[in-house]
Amino acid sequence: LAKTTQPISMDSYEGQEVNITCSHNNIATNDYITWYQQFPSQGPRFIIQGYKTKVTNEVASLFIPADRKSSTLSLPRVSLSDTAVYYCLVGGGYQKVTFGTGTKLQVIP
Amino acid sequence: NAGVMQNPRHLVRRRGQEARLRCSPMKGHSHVYWYRQLPEEGLKFMVYLQKENIIDESGMPKERFSAEFPKEGPSILRIQQVVRGDSAAYFCASSPGTSGSRGPETQYFGPGTRLLVL
Lengths: 109, 118
Hints:
A: 4-stranded antiparallel beta sheet
C-alpha cells in the first residue's frame, strides 16, 4: 500500500478556500486517491475519490497532477463546521485502506 | 436506510475481563472492517471480513483478539483478558462489496465504541 504524507495541522479563517496537499510518491497504477473527514467522537466520512486530473462534488474538489505523486483536496469557503481531521488514503480495488494521522484543520471565526 | 450501527457506544471493563463489540453493517452491505483509534492518532486497520469469512486480519494482534461476521447477525470484535492498552475507540465500517468496483469501495463508518479498561 502506498504511503501518504500530509501536513499535521492547518488553520484557516472562515470563508477562505483551503487546500490540503497529500504526497504519495509510490502510488501504484491501479491505486485511487480517497479523502475522508472525521469530526471529534465520530467515525470518518467519505468526501471524495479520484484517479487522475480533477474531480468535483458538492463538498470538495480533488486535483491530481499527471504524475499522480500528490493530490490536493480543495474545500471552498470553509465554515466553522469544517473543523475536522482530513485523511488522504491511497489504494485500489477491495484492498483495505490505511489511515495515516491526517491533517487537523482548524477554522477560525 | 439506517447507517452502520455499533453497540455499545461506551464500554468499561476491568483488566482481565472480556469485551465484545458489535457492529451491524448498512443494509445490503456484505463487507465489514474494524479499526482501532488511540487518542490523537489515526485509525489503524485491524480486520476485514465478508459474511462467514475473514479476508484480511493482518492488523489484528495475534493474541486475545478475534472477529467474526456470521451469516446472520452482527459482526463481533472480541477482546479477551483486556489490558489497559486496549483502551481506545473501535470503529466498524461496511461497504457494499459490489463486483467491478474500480476504486476502493466507499466505507461507511459507525459511531464507534469507546472502550475503557480500568
